[in-house]
Amino acid sequence: AQSVTQPDIHITVSEGASLELRCNYSYGATPYLFWYVQSPGQGLQLLLKYFSGDTLVQGIKGFEAEFKRSQSSFNLRKPSVHWSDAAEYFCAVGWYYGGSQGNLIFGKGTKLSVKP
Amino acid sequence: KAGVTQTPRYLIKTRGQQVTLSCSPISGHRSVSWYQQTPGQGLQFLFEYFSETQRNKGNFPGRFSGRQFSNSRSEMNVSTLELGDSALYLCASSLEAGEGDYGYTFGSGTRLTVV
């Protein structure tokens, strides 16, 4: 069965420091990969997505992610974290079949705290 | 353009009651999906509707149901509420124009509390 693992439940970084959030997936083929961010009491905002092509994907708010097929990973990175980046981050996989898109499977999320 | 609109934002219900949540997708989007988010289970897929038909369903009991109207608006209903149904219910819409367009836009959710 498809699954997504985010090994870090909670990460704290200092403002201005770099960030890497880990995501591993289990899927029989190359999936569609997403990173979403959720602020408290809010819905999910799409940061970036990967379908095919260049394995380094640029997203909004200065985030990027790299797809590594050999490691089944899709890690999210940001070179310099801002206090406003404090939120919960979700990695998700999906698939496309028979001319229609399937539902998303989410990881458990990583909560990011930012120290001043 | 307007995003995905979910109403109400907050809801408090008593065990045994039923509840209906509403979702208006982005204009032109034909697919609407529902997810349940809880601290213990995380984000779990409930069901998806496309052109008024349920196309996909997650592993939830029959107390959870939904429907989609001709204008793509969707409702989900939970009957005989249990304490464990307390959650944030998220709706997501999708254009479904083709494989390259794959993706979902989420609403802000409805926070359901069952007491």
Account of the protein in words:
The complex is a heterodimer of chains A (116) and B (115). Chain A is mainly β and 116 residues long. Chain A has strands at 3-5, 10-14, 19-21, 24-26, 32-38, 45-50, 56-58, 64-68, 73-78, 87-94, 96-97, 100-101, 105-106, 110-115. In chain A, the strands form four sheets. In chain A, strands 2, 5, 6, 10, 13 and 14 form a six-stranded mixed beta sheet that branches. In chain A, strands 3-9-8-7 form a four-stranded antiparallel beta sheet, with no helix packed on it. In chain A, a hairpin with a 6-residue loop joins strand 5 (32-38) and strand 6. In chain A, 34% of the residues are buried. The model of chain A has no long low-confidence stretch (mean pLDDT 93). In chain B, the strands form two sheets. In chain B, strands 2, 4, 5, 6, 9, 10 and 11 form a seven-stranded mixed beta sheet that branches. Chain B has a four-stranded antiparallel beta sheet with strand order 1-3-8-7, with no helix packed on it. In chain B, a hairpin with a 5-residue loop joins strand 7 and strand 8. Chain B is globular, with a radius of gyration of 14 Å. Chain B is mainly beta and 115 residues long. In chain B, 36% of the residues are buried. The interface between A and B is medium-sized, with 25 and 28 residues.
Q: How are the elements arranged and paired?
A:
The complex is a heterodimer of chains A (about 120) and B (about 120).
Chain A: E1 3-5, E2 10-14, E3 19-21, E4 24-26, E5 32-38, E6 45-50, E7 56-58, E8 64-68, E9 73-78, E10 87-94, E11 96-97, E12 100-101, E13 105-106, E14 110-115
Parallel strand pairs in A: 2-14
Antiparallel strand pairs in A: 1-4, 3-9, 5-6, 5-10, 7-8, 8-9, 10-13, 10-14, 11-12
Chain B: E1 5-7, E2 10-13, E3 19-24, E4 31-38, E5 42-50, E6 53-57, E7 64-68, E8 74-78, E9 87-94, E10 105-106, E11 110-114
Parallel strand pairs in B: 2-11
Antiparallel strand pairs in B: 1-3, 3-8, 4-5, 4-9, 5-6, 7-8, 9-10, 9-11
